[in-house]
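Posting for a labmate who doesn't have an account.
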Amino acid sequence: MARTKAQHVVPRSGKWGVLSAGATRATSLHPTQGEAIETAREIARSNRTELYIHGKDGRIRERSSFGNDPVPPKG
């Protein structure tokens, strides 16, 4: 069974895109980062995968796990 890929929220042509890891085309484009995050969070939650939120500079600024976390918290 193919593993569902992580979702990334990234800046795209003056908007915010939701991309699956390794994809070149956005799953969806949104006018605000908040809207893109909501959509990506729903996809990541339903597919039990990771969500990476990138800043305007393209660097990852936040990460969330909605499934099989490869490094679960201790304790």
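Reply:
Got it, the structure tokens are right above this. The helical segments are 33-47.
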